[in-house]
Amino acid sequence: MRTTCRIVERVAETPSTVTLRFRYEPAAAPGQFIMLWIPGDDELPMSLSYLDGSVKGVTVKAMGSTSRHIQSIPEGAWVGVCGPYGNAFDLSPRRLLVVAGGSGAAVLAPAAEAVRHRGGTVTVALGATTSTELLFAERFRAMGASVHLATDDGTIGHPGFVTAVAGSLLESHSFDAVWTCGPEVMMRKVVDAANLREVPTVLAMERHMKCAIGLCDACAIGPYHVCVDGPVFPAAKVATLPEFGTFQRDASGRRIYRERASAPAR
Amino acid sequence: MGDLRVNLAGIPLRNPFLLASGIWGESGESLVSAWRHGAGGVVTKSIGAAPRAGYPNPTVESLDRWGFLNAMGLPNPGIDEYPREIEIARAAGVTVIGSIFAHDAREFADLGRRMAATGVQAIELNLSCPHAEGLGAEVGGTPAAVEEITRAVVSVVRVPVIAKITPNTSDPAGLAVAAERGGAAAVSAINTLRAMSIDVRLRRPTLAHRLGGLSGPAIKPVGLACVWQVFEKVKIPILGVGGIMTAEDALQYVMAGARAVQVGTAVAFDGIEVFDRLAPDLSALLDELGIETLEEAVGLAHELQSVPNSRHRGPDVLEAARRGAPTGNEPRRAPRT
């Protein structure tokens, strides 16, 4: 059932990322997502970036026209919320490595907080294009995580990809689990590095999504559906699929390969 | 165990439970998954001539246990790209029925020819989507159009052609008669019922397309009535669709006249695992009722009902049955014990 909620707070997190908070009572677990409806525009799946208590939040990166529209929603405006949907992270790891690229930190931050709350240690490898785009670096520090940064332009931290930072952390420290969210090419490298150390990796996946209830097949990946079997998957389930990092389906269900122009179907 | 194998217009089905069109079916792996979970076959997403993104979200509105409203807008990768998904399913041995939609009889014939070339066992004509401009029910809403389109496809393919008719009309059975006249090998009834919902705080419809279609338990009585009426008017087999959640729902459709059924909304409620239990449950139910094969249950509810004066003689009949004496009201094919 869809609930109509008012936006109670809007926070600009980075130049391209905005958090919207709204009152939404249903309990949710870290990893789960909602469908956020912008009346008159569209409805998108959004991981919950804040989910303790009745005021929940999503953190939205400017990608297409609808996500830009979402970012401009003022406090007091109405939105529609359905959910929470999907599965959640298993919070049992005691020594956790989090590898977040771009807006991947939105789903990983609340999950890492929950692990800290249970007494686990959290190490974070956080990457972005530039220093001002690093999402939730302060939030990770505030929860008591050890935070290691990487930026493509070298404005702060390791100059280059966050996967290099993750690789050296995996060499120098012992972890029970690696959680990662970001572009699939990035997650592929994280999975490979963790496999070398035999550390189990868990991925938060993203696919084009429509119904969110396992009916329409839009978010199919191999034999799974991201909306009901995910979005949280053990790497062993999805990183071995031929389509992982290779193609995604567009709104029409066409396979869009990474090297192919992604003209949307009309 | 009750024998669930049925012959649907020449297609042997291992059981009568088919995955309904529009549910899953965008990827070949999903079709295989439905089959591995026990579906007797699958109907693909409706495929058109070109890739189609469908409508913006919200495309689905949950109505709790009643079912769902949806206005997906016929998203599909198009007939150029979709055959490779069918190939994945065919390679796994899945019984595949290819669904197609088009704007007119000529386009239907062209798509039908191309769909048949993929190796599907049958073609289902989407003459009934309730929320697509110039498509679905808008082209298949009259007997004349149903007959013309059916004939156009039947004349260019060798596989059986199934017409899926709309309930959003005063005479659904008339559409089935037209399909039979056009050469359809079978008819599917029903598609979703035109429906909508409104958010009072936002003062607007909740579906982006405003109008959509209602599926799920709420429409089962409507589907049963349609199948009942169609059974009395046509000789071709019927696929019952609409709100089938359990084996007993399916048997109701069969007794109303369906030879096979399609399952859609139940996949959202119970997951694809619903197919794991439907066939064994139906087999057990047939045993319980003393019915040996599903085939002999087709249309069974019409037979007792057709005995003259049975309504008035009801108590006598029951009393006679208790004594094991002939009542004069025996159905033509009495349940065997």
Quick structural summary:
The complex is a heterodimer of chains A (266) and B (337). Chain A has seven helices and 17 strands.
Protein architecture, described:
The complex is a heterodimer of chains A (266) and B (337). By secondary structure, chain A is an alpha/beta fold. Chain A is 22% helix and 35% strand. In chain A, the strands form 4 sheets. A 7-stranded mixed beta sheet of chain A has the order 10-9-8-7-11-12-15, sandwiched between helices. Chain A has a 6-stranded antiparallel β-barrel with strand order 1-2-5-4-3-6. In chain A, strands 13-14 form a two-stranded antiparallel sheet. The longest helix of chain A is centred in the middle third of the chain and has 13 residues, at 105-117. Helices cover 33% and strands 17% of the residues of chain B. Chain B contains 11 helices and 16 strands. In chain B, strands 3-4-7-8-9-10-15-16 form an 8-stranded parallel barrel, surrounded by 8 helices. Chain B has a 4-stranded antiparallel beta sheet with strand order 5-6-14-11, with no helix packed on it. The radius of gyration of chain B is 20 Å and the shape is globular. The chains are: A alpha/beta (266), B alpha/beta (337). Chain A binds chain B through residues 1-2, 4, 35, 37, 39-44, 78, 80, 82, 210-218, 220, 222-223, 225, 228, 249-255, 264-266, and chain B through 22-27, 29-30, 32-33, 45, 50-54, 56-62, 64, 68, 70, 72, 75-78, 81-82, 199, 201-202, 204, 206, 208, 264-265, 267-268, 271-272.
Mean pLDDT of chain B: 91
CATH superfamily of the largest domain in chain B: Aldolase class I
**Which term fits the overall shape of chain A?**
globular
Residue share in β-strands of chain A: 25-35%
Rounded to the nearest angstrom, the distance between the terminal CA atoms of chain B is 13 Å
CATH topology of the largest domain in chain B: TIM Barrel
Radius of gyration of chain A, whole Å: 18 Å
Structural class of chain A: alpha/beta
Strand content of chain B: 15-25%
Helix content of chain A: 10-25%
Distance linking N and C termini of chain A:
29 Å
CATH superfamily of the largest domain in chain A: Nucleotide-binding domain of ferredoxin-NADP reductase (FNR) module
Q: What is the level-2 CATH architecture name of the largest domain in chain A?
A: 3-Layer(aba) Sandwich
How do the SSEs of chain A run, as a string of H and E? EEEEEHEEHEHEEHEHEEEHEHEE
The largest contact between protein chains, plus residue counts on each side, is: A-B, 38 and 45 residues
CATH class of the largest domain in chain B: Alpha Beta
Q: Strand pairing plus helix content of chain B: what structural class?
A: alpha/beta
